[in-house]
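Repro:
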Amino acid sequence: MGYEVRMQEEILALLRLFRDRARDRETNAWVIELAADRARWTGAHDLFDLIRDRLLVATGDAGRPPVPKDQIDWDRVQQYAFEELCLKALFNETDTKYPFDSCSPFWVAGSAIRLARALGVPTEAVITVIAPEM
């Protein structure tokens, strides 16, 4: 099985793991839909941009009045950061001349663990996806 097939399976499993507790179920569903269809991976950059816009709004960095740090929905921020990394990894597997940082896939696992902690998903569930017992 090729790297990209295993990566797709793991990303989908992680996204589905968070689906019921996601703070923004819409973006979770969008990323699942895109990740499930390799023919759509070229659209990952555009979806990244949409999620980045939501991240900037959530953190108060979107040119609007700033959100006080104690009022930021950090669970939502963690979700968007995780989804962005998944999209970067998927997009980089397309035939693009303008990839995201090549290290993006490296950060997916750590981001998934941070999101699991934020949402109350057992980190063992993440580990089961990214490092299954043989």
